[in-house]
Structure formats: structure tokens, C-alpha cells
Queue: 4 jobs
Job 1
Amino acid sequence: MDFLTDQDAKKYQEDGYLILDGLLSPAECDELRLRMGEIVDRMDVPEHCRIQFSTNHDEQLKTQGNADYFITSGDKIRFFFEKGVFDDKGDFTVPKERSLNKIGHALHAYEPLYKTATHSPKIQGIAKKLGLKSPVILQSMYIFKQPGIGGEVMPHQDATFLHTEPLGRVMGVWIALEDATLDNGCLWFIPGSHNNGITRRMVRTPEGTYPLTDFVGREATYNDKLFIPAPVKKGGVVLIDGEVVHKSEQNASEKSRHVYTFHIMESQKTKWSPENWLQPTEELPFPALYTK
């Protein structure tokens, strides 16, 4: 039996998102979390994160360091921290495993357990059921949503950051490695909002200019009452159309909300924008989802 039914596919196309239970077993979730613990144990904190603020110049260096570190992370595994987790000497103010916002963006390429989860028969089956002919994997992230400090994610559309011509070729796959609840910052969606296009794009600026990325257009203002919560059990998955509007609240609870998430794109008859922050490289062209 297909993991994704015809009815599920119809609901995804109507709402722009879909929640499915049981993509991964609890044991598979624990294995991915355990491996991430090992990666965090061994991480080298990038120097720009530890810059001690003393002048505007230092602050600019830190900002520029952050931007360069981000824009060149598509084919690497890199560490992104929550605000306020370093003191003015560049030392952690919280345990280092509680300091991270996310790790990205090429876990799917270099970490065997994450690669296996990304290319799993269920994921391939979902893509086939949705009619994807030549899907490729754009990027992947591990999101921590730390207890007490996991920041709010403002309403946005993934296509703002991952732009294609035509639109509608990108899908996020968001796997809960722990229960994602109303208390610890589950996703919220505006059903049907994927039918309205996008109002804002993040683009690379011309080479040699700073900042390295900029926004064209503005995020629309959304009515808070239109958002519907999407809690999901450990091992469940949320499929996210690239144009659907979604957000998550701050995690004020004492429980983390670990997630493994990646984006796939139908590459057939699709133009990937050269202005996107994320670009395939010689080291890592976007890998095909369907393994032979």
C-alpha cells in the first residue's frame, strides 16, 4: 500500500501542506538524534561567531562573516547558533548542545544516516505519487528549536529563498524527530495560500558588493486568524509546498523540538534561479532523489 494515498495527494494540492504519521519509527528518530549529538560534540565553532564586539567594524566583520558562512554552506555541514549564546569573550553562555539553531545544508550528501532517511522508499514513493519525474535534493537542515530560547520563525514562503521558474516546483519535507506541539513550537499554515504567488525574493547581490544577499519585494501582511496549527508526532512528516505561507512560534517550553528537514525540486522543465543564495557546486551538484 502507498504511504501517500490519492486522498492525501489531493489534500496536499488543495491546502499546500500535509501531515502524515509514521514516516520514521521512534528508533530511526533516536538514531538520527544520536548521530547529531556526536556531530555537535565534535563541532569547531567558526571564528566569526566568537568575535568580541568592541567597535562597529568588529560588528560588521561578524555580520559579514555570518553572511559568507551562510551563502557558501550549500555543499557543506555548518553550524548556526541562537542569539545570545556567546559572551563578550566568545565563550558559550549555555551548554554547547543547547546553543544551536540549526545545522545545514548538506547533511543529505555527507551523513550516511541522513542520506538514507532522505532517499527512503517512503520519500521516493511520496514524490512519485505527487507526479515528480526528476526530483533533486536542494538542501537539508537539522533544526533544534531549543527549550526556552528556540526563536520564532516569522510567516514566510520557502519559494522566497528557493526560487524557480515556473514557481511551484519546490517541496519541503519536514520530519519530526520529537513530538512537535503547540507548546514547543510546531508549524502553523494558512491553507490554500500557495495559490497566491510570492511577494518577496531573497537574491544574491552582484559579486563584490555587500551585503551578499538582499530582498526584492516585501513579505505580505497576514491575518493571524488564518493560521492553522500543524502538530505532528515523533516520526511524522509535514509536506510543505514552496509557496504556502507558514510560521512557527518561539519555544517557551522545557522540551526541544528536533526536526530533520530537506527540500526537493522537480528539475524537469524547471529553471533554478542563478540569483538564489543556494547554488549547486562542482563538489555537490543537486543529487537525484530517485536512486537506481
Note: The chain has a mean pLDDT of 92.
Job 2
Amino acid sequence: MESPKSLIPSFLYSSSSSPRSFLLDQVLNSNSNAAFASSNLEKSPSPAPRSSSSAMLSRKNFLIASPTEPGKGIEMYSPAFYAACTFGGILSCGLTHMTVTPLDLVKCNMQIDPAKYKSISSGFGILLKEQGVKGFFRGWVPTLLGYSAQGACKFGFYEYFKKTYSDLAGPEYTAKYKTLIYLAGSASAEIIADVALCPFEAVKVRVQTQPGFARGMSDGFPKFIKSEGFGGLYKGLGPLWGRQIPYTMMKFASFETIVEMIYKYAIPNPKSECSKGLQLGVSFAGGYVAGVFCAIVSHPADNLVSFLNNAKGATVGDAVKKIGMVGLFTRGLPLRIVMIGTLTGAQWGLYDAFKVFVGLPTTGGVAPAPAAIAAAAEVKA
């Protein structure tokens, strides 16, 4: 029987071990009252003496040991680190969105035809009567493919941009304006992620809201192109950015803040002393609360995306006129809150579970401290 680690690409594990794995100890113990700056690094359990040779090592070369392979690990901010985050994003977004396809199906139909689909319960009843149980998962293939692509870019580029912007800002400003770093990093990542998602989202909405249009991705994609051309696949990109960029900014910035507050006020022990199970529970809880905020912020644009991808030749003005301003903010909102809250909580739980599996720390929970960041910068210099 294969070991669980065999399911993960071997390039996600470093094949070397060196004194670099002790660098975090040196940074942490350069100032006994300071916490390490990066929200992705945890305290080492024991200090290590400084030496002239180790002082020349770069902070980015810190190694975190894999739980299944002692002595080996992934270098933080190395290509393998970003590859692991990208793969974790594929799992967390693709699988969770596919799982909630029935909720998404009802939501889209409530947004497109509220006269027929008046409520969540009646919506499920109508779909069951007209299409059977199988109909609840119509559009699951474009959902899986589209949100896997989006998740890869969203999480992978978020980690990259967060590190890049932190380096540009410098230690003092990173600690002072950490929320702005989270917002800028997540917005930058989502711009790229939505370009990957948009064609799949267009086909998904058409398949889900126009029975008989297509069975799924294989026949829906060519039919969509034949009907509206390749440009039609990106007709909803503007509204998609309008929905997803605020959503993702709220998703990442509020998650980082909520998790930090949980460890600070609700859990008596530091994050480094908490079990991995407890840390993953915090990730899910923080993700769920963040998801509620995400749903409210992004809901008007979600209505626009559904309308535009369903109606050939429609414009944003047509959508606003048809749905109304109040309808943009309220139509299908309760179901979206339930769906997005659960979805976001599950995504953060899966993402951090994968990070733990390959030997990385869970996301967030350690507030940047200027003194510790400055000490790390000195070591890097």
C-alpha cells in the first residue's frame, strides 16, 4: 500500500538538509521579546547559537521539516514552496466549489428567474421535479476545472505578492501596514486568477441556467464559442473582477486578522504551542467568518455575472434595469452567505491541511513585530 506522501509530487520536498534549517532560531533569539515577522513562520522550540557563517545565510532559505520525513523539508519562499501553495489552492478551491454545485445551481437560477425560483426550498423542489437528482450537479465539470485554475493562481500568487510587497515595504512598514499588504497581495493575485476562471464560469452559468443548452463542459464549450465567439468567454470578466477582487481582498485580509485575534484573545497558548488539529480548527473558523463578509461584499457583482452570462448581448445597464439596485444586493443573498461561508471555511481548512501535510506551517496567527523583522533583515544583510 502506498504511503500518503506518495500522492504528492516529489518536487514539493527538498532533498537536502543543512544548517540553514536553524536560521529561524537565530532570528527569534536575537531579540527575546520580539515575534517573527512572517505570518507563515512559527517559533522554533529551542534556540541555536549564532555563528559568523550562519549569519550570512538568507532568511528565505529557512527549511521546515516534513512531518513524514524528518530532517527534510521545503524552503520557505523557494520555487517548491510556491508550488506547494499552488497545488494546495487547486485542491482547496476546485474540490470545495464542485461539492457545493447544487447550492450554486439553485443560487444562479434564483438570480436569473426569481419568479420561478422564489426561495431556496422551492428552488430545490423545482429542480428535483424537472431534472431529477442528477440535475443538481449539472455544470460540475466547468466548476471543477475553472475553480481549480482560479485556486492555483489565487493562493500561489497571494503568497508570492505578499512576500514581494513585504520586501518592498521594508520591516517597519510591513509591521505597521500589514493589512494593506494582505489587501494588495490578494487583489493582485485575483486579477490573474479571474483571467483563468472566466471562460469556465461563462460556460458553467449557461449550462446551469439554460436546460437543454448542453450537458456540460465538453459540448457546452464549443456551443458557447459558436454562439458568441471566443470574446464571449470573457464578456463577464469586468463583473467577475468586480465580484472576485473585493471578495478575495476580504477573504484573505479578514482571515489573517481574524486568525490573529483568535490566537491573541481566545487561545491561552501561543500558536507554536498549539496542536496541528487545533490550528486547522482555527483556520476553518477564521475562514467561515471571513466567508460571511466575502458574500456580502461581492454579492451585487455576483448577480451581474449570472445575468450577463445567461443573456446573450446583455449589458451591465440591462442587468441593473432588470434586477434593480435593491435586487442586486439582496436577491439570493441568504443562500450565498451559507454557501460562501461554508465554502471559504472549507477552503482555508483544506489549504492549511495540505500545507501541514507537506511540512509547512498553517497560515496566519503571528503578528509581525518590527524589532524581529529588523533582526531578520540584519541577518539577511
Note: Confidence is low (pLDDT under 50) at residues 4-9, 11-71, 369-377.
Job 3
Amino acid sequence: MSAISGRALHYVFKIGDRAKNAFFFRQILGMTVLRHEEFKEGCDAACNGPYDNRWSKTMVGYGPESSHFVIELTYNYGVSSYELGNDFGGVTIHSKDILSRAAEHSYPVTQVAGKAGSLLTSPDGYKFYVIDQASASSDPVQSVELNVSNLQNSRKYWHDLLQLKVLEESEASVRLTYDEQQASLEITQISEPINRAKAYGRIAFAIPAAQQPPLQDAVKAAGGAILTPLITLDTPGKATVSVVILADPDGHEICFVDEEGFGQLSQVESDGDKRLDRYIEKDPFQPK
């Protein structure tokens, strides 16, 4: 397999209350809605988890998906909460504005021993570590942390098989990326068994379509888990993409989507923000 030319795209969170999450991501973290999509039935690649029902996807971030690492908020109609596991470590953001907004809205901020930055927790329990300084790059999102049970096994998987480059490492963690200008992935070993529970997410990368079959073949030859073999996915009124869904040694889900199709699919929607609000108003458990 030739060298992979990859780009970090987003991390997926399942959310239980769109109104509370819209407030947190927009008013506290200061992200904007980049696009909002509604689906009538479950995803063939389990994009919304193991749910065959109506669901929505909202992409939020600090800039276009073509140049920023963003968050995908997945909402399954009728599901108000998810059991949180210990698989997700957190997102690290550099910002001079978030903590002041949190204080303005009396939003809780805490400190965690051994962690840089101040901790804010989303309505569903996902962790965001805010370092109170301006970002050195155009994207305030610096890294995404996943917890693992065996650091060396995970390093071999992410570095040797998926070909992410090692940026730095210690006895407890390894930070990797496809490109130093992108948000990085940090894998951290924890002592207890990994529990993905019900709230487990998925990290996504884009690679050229021509590299998807060789990657899938390499993972299969190495005995790695392929959750969804290479498949095409449609979004009503938008571009079709091809994806292959993998799982690392601890079951962390990884989506590799074709760069060509995703570039068309992920165009910023000028009305995404208003469309999200319109659907939130219809949510059955929202105050009237």
C-alpha cells in the first residue's frame, strides 16, 4: 500500500437534547453551524449508531470543513440520553474567549490534575479542555484524545497500519497526525478496561478514493476489524460519498471517506443555523 494522504475531519458525538447542545456549542464554545441534515431512516454505515430511525446530523466548528476539524452532533429522534463510557478523553481547544463566555453564562469550569487547560463538559458529558490562549494555527481545535488499553498495540495500529505520523510520545500517550497543520489525535493509556457504553463516537478522516480499497485490504490482511466494508452513502440533494468504517484494537470507530465526494458534500450551508433552530422547536421534549 502506498503512503496514505489523509486529512482529519471530525469527531462524532451522540446528543440527547439539541437545544442544550446548540447553546453549549454556539454560545459557550463559540462554534457555528456549518450544515444541518435530516434523515428519515438509519444509516447503512451506522453513522447514527445502531438505530434504525429518524435522525439528524449537525456539523459545528470554527470554520469550513475543508480547513477545520469540526464536531458532528448526531441526534436520534426519541433517544434523550446515552450511557457514557470511558473511551473518549476530550477535545483540546485554544481560545481567549471561551472561558469568559462560560463565566458570563455561569457555566461550570473545573480543573483536572495532570491536564492542561480548564475543563468544560457538554450537556451529554463530553469533555473539552480549553487552553486560555490564542491558537497558533487558523483552527482553534488542537487535538482529540481517545483512551486505549494497550498503548503499544494502539501505536502500532494507528502509526504502522493507518500511517499517521508520530508527533510526540511518552510512557502514557502518543500524539499522531497525517499533517502537522491539522488537529492531532492523542491516544492515552488508562488502567481500567475500555468501556464504549452507548455514547461511543467515531473519528473521521478523508483520503483519496483510490486509496480506500488498498487501505481496506491492508487492514483485512493485518486482521484488523472492518465494521462496514467500502460502501457508498447518499445524502438527499447532496453528493454521494464512499466510506469504509474500521475499528482500532479497543473498538474506537474510524471512518475513512473519499476526499473527492466529501469535498462536495461538506460545503457550508448559509441556512444551516436557522434550519437547526427550526427543527429544535419541533422537538417533543422542548419547553413550549
Note: The mean pLDDT is 95.
Job 4
Amino acid sequence: MALVSEFLGQLTLNFGGSEPKFPTVVAARDFDPAKDAARIETAVKTKGVDELTIIDILTRRSYSQRREIAFEYEKRSKKDMITALKGALSGSLEAVILGLMKSTAQYDASEIKGSIKGLGTDEETLIEMVCSRSAEELVEIKRVYKELFKKELEKDVAGDTSGDFRSLLLALVQALYEAGVKRKGTDVATWITIMSERSVPHLQKVFDRYKSYSPYDMQESIRKEVKGDLEKSFLTLVECFENKQQYFANRLSEAMKGKSAKEKVVTRIVVSRCEVDLMKIRTEFKKLNQKSLYQTIAEHTKGDYQKVLLSLCGGDD
């Protein structure tokens, strides 16, 4: 660990701009929110509910367009569209559609809240959500979290975690920007400081250079030196720094290894990334599995849940 700390302590970090987008869901052309609202109202009122129309419309519109549809829906029916969708849908399909009615930051904030609510913490979800988001995304998630839940994200995370794991998550959600840190203290503290600086292009080069500096690559070093949730967090960070879309492709692969999919994980990744980088995740998934994400979803899911995911997936590779 001392070797790793010494190496990391020598870094001067440069901060990149916003990450490029590779969405599968984009704004529809010739968009008519009033027409869409009318079709959704009919679909909700239809005996047995016309799920296909709801899927067809809401998976092929951007978030801002969905908000316009909701506004038109309320104007014409004097009812809230989200409440109407909640009443009409159920199960996994409901989770996806209601997720689409939130902005990416609202959805992320809700998922983080869900992972620390009630008895016990869903560390796996918390690690994925906090460690895979960029500094800019975390700033927005924090703002929205306070807006939605009237609480500070840091306080909720601090109240639900402990030790070095808590220190790392707090450093990340506080989105530290102190360049060239040579801080004294424990080895783990040095790692936390450096990892939470989150300059992706710079750290990609660092991890590459680290291989010539050490007999182990960064992931092997982490596995040797730390354990438990802290190990998972550091590994997630390194995977996301090296190739974020490959990290999500791996998560999707793991979630669809068994006979049936781990729906919560698949839903969360597809909904949260469809307007961000799901197109690139699809490419990485095919590289990893020699099978497309579209085909894998088709094999591991069924019914309306399958239809909504395939639509968000945006095509086969």
C-alpha cells in the first residue's frame, strides 16, 4: 500500500470537461405533446390498459418531452399523469415508466435514497451510484436530493455508512477539487483523496503508468490491500476511470447470468443511462459477451417489461 500511496501522492491532477453523450433515447422529431397526451389518456382508460402505447410513446421521447406530455395531460384531463400511470401500471413495467418520468439526476437521487432507506444499507447500489457518477453529475444529484428529500446527501450517507467506506463516499459526494495533494496521514486516506479528485483522462494515464511502476496493476493492488465495501468502491472507481461503459456492461452481464434477470439492477442501469451513454454500453456489452445487449435482454426477460427494455435499448447490434 505504501508504494501505491507514494505513487498517487506524486500526482498533479488536471480536470476534464463534461463527458460526451451516447444516448439510445433522444428527442423525437415532429413532436406533438398534446397528441401524445391524448393517446396516453386513452391508453390508461382502456379496459385492461394499453401498455404498448404507453411504452411506445414514453420510451421514444426525451425527458423534457415527457415533461411536456405530462403538462398537456394535466391540462386536458385535470389529473396528474404520473398518478394515472401509477394507477394503471404495476411491477417492473411501472418501475421503468415512473423512472422515465424523472430526470437522470432525480432518478439517481431516488435510487441512492432507496439504497439507504429503512433497515440496512444496499451497499452494492450505493457504490454503483456514487462511484460511477462524474463530479458534475454528483453536484447535480446533491442539489436534486436536497430538493426532493429536504436533507443533505452527505448527512444521509454519513448516517448510514462507517469507517473508510464512509470517508470515501463522503469525499466523492463532496466532489473534491484540490489539485496536487500531498497529504500526510494513513495510506487509505491518500487513496481516498486521490480517487475522489476524479480527473478521468488524467487517472486513465496514471493507471497505465502505474503498471510499469508496480508488479501489479491498480486493480490487483487494491485487491491485495483493502477488503469489503471499500475494496468494491475502489474497484468500481478504477473500472469507471478506465472504461465506464465497460463497467456498466459488466454489471448488466452479471445481472443477466442466471435464468431470470436481476430486474432491479437492469432497470436502474437502462433507465439511468438511456439518455447518457447506453449506446456505448451496448457496444462494450457485445465486445464482452459476443452477444448483443438486445438479444440478452430478450432471453432473460418477458412480457411488457421485456418490451419496455428493448425499446430503451434502441436496437440490436
Note: The longest helix spans residues 228-255.
